[in-house]
Specification:
Radius of gyration of chain A: 19 Å
Helix content of chain B: 25-40%
Number of helices of chain A: 8
Largest sheet of chain B: 7 strands, parallel
Number of domains of chain A: 2
Largest sheet of chain A: 6 strands, mixed
Strand order of the largest sheet of chain A: 5-6-7-3-8-9
Strand content of chain A: 15-25%
CATH superfamily of the largest domain in chain A: P-loop containing nucleotide triphosphate hydrolases
Strand order of the largest sheet of chain B: 3-2-4-1-5-6-7
Order of helices and strands of chain B: EHEHEHEEHHEHEHEE
Oligomer: heterodimer
Shape of chain B: globular
CATH superfamily of the largest domain in chain B: P-loop containing nucleotide triphosphate hydrolases
Shape of chain A: globular
Structural class of chain B: alpha/beta
CATH topology of the largest domain in chain A: Rossmann fold
Structural class of chain A: alpha/beta
Number of strands of chain A: 9
Order of helices and strands of chain A: EEEHEHEHHHEHEHEEH
Distance between the termini of chain B: 46 Å
CATH class of the largest domain in chain A: Alpha Beta
CATH class of the largest domain in chain B: Alpha Beta
Number of strands of chain B: 9
Chain lengths: 261, 240
Amino acid sequence: MIETITILGGRDKAGRAEPVRRIDFKMGDIVSVVGPTGSGKTTLINDIELFADANTPTGRSILINGTRPPLEYRDDPAHNPIALITQHTTFLSDLSVYDFLTTHARIRNADPNHTHTVIERTLGFANQLTGEPVAVESRMTELSGGQTRALLIADATIICNTPIVLLDEVENAGIHRSRALELLRQYRKIFIFVTHDPRIALLSDYRIVMQNGSITQVLYTDDAEKRLSTTVGKLDDALSNLREKIRQGERITSFELEPLA
Amino acid sequence: MKLVICAGPATTGKTAVLRHVIRKLLNAGQKAAFLKIDVQFAEEDELLAREFGIPTRKVYSGELCPDHCNVMVLGDALEWADHSGSDVLLVETAGLCLRCSPYVNGGLGIIVLEATSGMNLPLKVGPMLSLADVAVVTKIDRVSQAEREVFRARIQDVAPSVRIREVNALYGIGIDPLIGYIASMPDVQFDINHHPAGMLLRGNPPVGTCTICVGKKEIGWQSHFGVVRALENQTFYRGE
């Protein structure tokens, strides 16, 4: 059973020691990684995904339950406790959604009698995250960016059921973010979001701040920020509505902009 | 001296994997030599010689099947590498043929596959995979976790005894076990004339004896002799 995952600090791009020397993520934590483009956010989650052992350019080490992760984590993806979903991660297989999920559920040793239920739950989860429902008979390669991202998250959470899920800038793909965080909170896992999105950052338990390749701060979401997150959500929804109206070819009146004033 | 033969379709990252292997061998105080076999163009030998200062060579197979070319030149190559004082000879093949396998008994056979090549690839590559010792899977960050798992399961279906290593060939992560596998191989034996002794090709290459091999270009089996094949028939022999 995985209870914690630890990052031991390495060095920044100039070779100086990383200011934050140790972070422990606990099961159930929802974490954001924030920082300017090029500050090393993606590199950080790559370190985690690769179980870095001072053998990546950053010199960081990753521990699981306080010790070095066993080799079979790397050797067998079906035992890997981490699922990584990046902006580039995509489905390449030209199968129907149903065939694909069935194949994956079988490999994950899901009870064959329950495969159908697992697939229904996965699709149900995905369809709460995306505005355009995924149909089981559609081909994987036909899915839109948002549908793909939603299905990847649902697959990682329900079929892989890995204790750790890394999500690299998934917000750009048009998934329902507040709903996603609400749903993910029902699963006792560690979710790490690399994000530029204030909404995701403020709904997280804490955020890791990156600069010039190293972790400079860990900020816990305080009560004031938690209260603000509701307002941020409303602003964000107003912008989403606006975006949707533009998409639908409608004119914009001052009404939609009121929450922003 | 140990022998490593590395195969795999074009652009999967064979050279990227071998580069990390060479770096780790050199760091461990070992000497490595490198031979590239390709059809008509290769520059890996020059790149690796420049980067590591190790003895490297290349062979163009030209008119000869590149995997057959490998068999032909491997004896000379082992002698060359041994004379140069190397502890390991790494042979990178052209990796073209889905019916051949370039591995020999006594040498470590590595196939490099990319996770992006589609989940059915393991079912298509044939003996290049099933006769290998290790399957190295690259580009794992480009596909979904689900497809990585299916890709791996498909390799295991086709080649249950092949060890699978998922690596990040950009950072060289996951390469270390390959160094252990190389160390566990037997040394190449040389006879009194200093020719490699007792090394045999694994598996049987397909029969390739027909008049197309010697330059006849007419379409249709009726124009050919030797081992031929009609659409509605298995291969058969035509001729005297």
